[in-house]
Design goal:
The protein has three helices and eight strands; from the N terminus they run αβββααβββββ. By secondary structure, the chain is an alpha+beta fold. It has one domain: Mannose-Binding Protein A, Chain A, CATH 3.10.100.10. It is globular, with a radius of gyration of 18 Å.
Length: 162
């Protein structure tokens, strides 16, 4: 009897996986690799990890993959990523970006490459005005935009590598 229950469970699991694969979005391809999901958006592959880590760990994970922490440096890239994350049900996670503002500065830039940020998607009330702290940027799809927090805070968030 235990064997038939186990076989039933395995059959149900197999069918669930097959149905889940068949329902993936047309506009976004996805492939699961362990706890990481790879998505293809506009011909570019991104690795999305919802598991919460500190920012230096996120940066190292990206480097280990031969990638870098995401920088929305192409027009429309941020909005395309938001759509892709919604399509795969990952809109309720916070994600690190490589955006940064150093203390005593008003300049926001992408740490991965150094390009200045010219298009912003701030959550109301952001960015912070404190000039005595380095600020890093994260985002959450369902929050409506970017959030900035002191870089030295010990926040653990998901991350996206490109």
């Amino acid at each position: 009897m235990a064997t038939s229950s186990l076989l039933g469970f395995l059959l149900l699991l197999f069918l669930t996986i097959q149905i889940g694969d068949a329902s993936s979005s047309k506009s976004t391809e996805q492939r699961v690799a362990g706890s990481r999901v790879e998505i293809n958006v506009n011909g570019k592959t991104y690795s999305v990890t919802a598991g919460a880590v500190y920012k230096p760990e996120a940066e190292q994970d990206c480097l280990n993959q031969g990638k870098q922490l995401i920088a929305f440096d192409e027009q429309g890239e941020y909005l395309a990523i938001l759509d892709a994350l919604r399509n795969i049900g990952m809109e309720r996670h916070w994600y690190w970006t490589s955006a940064r503002r150093n203390k005593y500065s008003d300049v926001w830039y992408w740490e991965t490459g150094g390009a200045l940020i010219t298009e912003f998607f701030w959550i109301p009330g952001n960015p912070a005005t404190d000039q005595l702290v380095d600020y890093c940027v994260s985002f959450r799809v369902d929050s409506g935009g970017w959030d900035d927090d002191p870089c030295e805070n010990n926040f653990v968030l998901g991350h996206i590598c490109e």
